[in-house]
Structures are given as C-alpha cells and as structure tokens.
Amino acid sequence: MKQKLVYLWIALLGALSLYLLWTVSDLQYSLKASEQKIERLLKEETEDHEEGEEHYELAVAMGRFQLYANKLWFSGIAGNAELSDFYAHELEEAMEEVAEQELTENGQSISEQIKIWGLEPLEKLEEAVDSGDKQAFEQSYDALVSSCNGCHVTCGYSWVRIKRPETPAFDNQWYTKN
Ligand code: HEC
User: Fold this and answer.
1) What whole-number distance in Å separates Cα of residue 70 and Cα of residue 115?
2) How far is CA 97 from CA 46, 58, 65, 144, in A?
3) Is 132 left (phi over 0), alpha (psi -120 to 50) or beta?
4) I need a surface site. Which of 19, 25, 55, 172 has the fewest CB within 10 A?
5) CB of 65 shorter than 6 A to ligand 1
6) How far apart are CA 102 and CA 90, in angstroms?
7) pLDDT confidence of residue 42
C-alpha cells in the first residue's frame, strides 16, 4: 500500500515537471516570435522614412540646381555680375539645404559629397564673377559642371550628364545689364 503511494507521487511529480517544461518552452517560443515581429516593424519604419526623404528632397533640389546653373551661364556671359551673383547665391542656398539633410545615395553621404563637388567649385565661380574676368568665369563654370557630373558618377547616377547650356531655360527674361 505504502509502495503504491510512492509510485503515485513519482508519477504525479513527473507529470508536473513535464507540464512545467512544456509551458516554459511555449513561453520562450512566443517571446522569440514577438521579438522578431518588433524587429521587422522597426526595420520597415526606418526604410519608409529613408525612402520618403530621399525621393522628395533630392529630386526637387536637383531641379533647382539645374535651373540656376542655366540662368547663371547666361547672366555670366552677358557680363552681368549682379545677376550672376544673385544666381550663384541661390544655387549656394539650394546646396546648403541639401547638405543639411541626412541623405545617402548608394552608400555615399550626400552632405559630404555636396561640399566637395558642389559648394567648393561654386565658391571659385563666385570669385570669378566678382573678378569680372570673362575667361575665368567660363573656366570656373565648366569646372562646376564637371563637378555636378563627378558627384553623379560618385553617387551612382553617371547617366545624369550636365553640360553648358545653349539656350536659356526661359525666354522672357533679360540677362544683360540694365
Ligand atoms: C551630392 C552630389 C551631387 C551634386 C554636387 C550634384 N548632383 Fe545632381 N544628382 C545627384 C543625385 C544623387 C541625383 C539623383 C537624385 C534622385 O535620386 O532623385 C541627382 C540628379 C540630378 C538630376 C536629375 C533630376 C532631374 O531633375 O532631371 C539633375 C538634372 C541634376 N542632378 C543636376 C545637377 C546639377 C546641375 C548639379 C550641379 C550644379 C548637380 N546636379 C550637382 C547628386 C548630385
């Protein structure tokens, strides 16, 4: 009789430990699943954020670069220093705005690249405008255009190729001095 009771206890304890083991592993499993879900959600959120910012900001800014680069050429060859300074300044502001964003393109930091390929050659161009030397203007304008393209190559957009303009983007504005 006593022996039977001992067996019963052993069986009960065995069942209890099996139950506990099962519960613990079940808990571990759902914890792991929740962790993975949180990780996935966080990743999706950062990706959405990055894509949204890159596409909006950069496309708009590049359009402005292109327009000011066009106007800057025609005011420059017309020897209109005031107007050229104005466009150089607008271009500088547009570049600084891009530099303030935390953007990356194909692993390149846009803020860093814009300083090297954008703001530095633009500063030289501004000096040339102020000197009133037409040849210096043309040379530094071409250097700026090469830098636009240098950055496009560096950022993986080698097919976006900028050049000296042949016609003004708009025909309803005087570029000559008043
Ligand atoms: C920081 C490096 C960098 C510099 C400097 C740079 N670009 Fe870009 N440009 C880019 C990137 C990156 C793209 C692709 C943008 C995108 O993904 O929307 C681009 C795209 C463009 C486009 C195509 C979009 C469109 O509106 O057709 C034009 C045009 C353009 N750039 C003009 C210029 C001009 C003009 C300059 C120089 C005054 C310049 N860029 C300087 C990085 C640069």
Assistant:
1) 21
2) 22, 10, 11, 18
3) left
4) 172
5) yes
6) 21
7) 84
Q: Cβ atoms within 10 A of the Cβ of 120, count?
A: 14
Locus of tokens 């019963």: 8
CA distance 1 to 48: 71
What is the CA(142)–ligand 1 centre distance, in A?
Answer: 16
Closest CA to 104 of 40, 41, 46: 46
| 53 has a pLDDT exceeding 70 | no
Report the candidate in 152, 141, 160 with the shortest Cα–Cα distance to residue 117: 152
For residue range 85-119, list pLDDT tens digits in order. Answer: 999 999 999 999 999 998 999 999 999 999 999 99
Nearest ligand 1 atom to alpha carbon 59: 18
Best CA proximity match to 91, nearest among 132, 140, 156, 50: 140
Which among 163, 7, 150 has a CA at the least distance from the CA of 70?
A: 163
Task: Assess whether the C-beta atom of 72 lies below 6 angstroms from ligand 1.
Answer: no
Residue 167 has pLDDT above 60, yes or no: yes
Can you read off the two tokens belonging to residue 155? 């950022």
Count how many Cα atoms sit within 13 Å of the Cα of residue 140 in the half-sphere of its side chain.
25
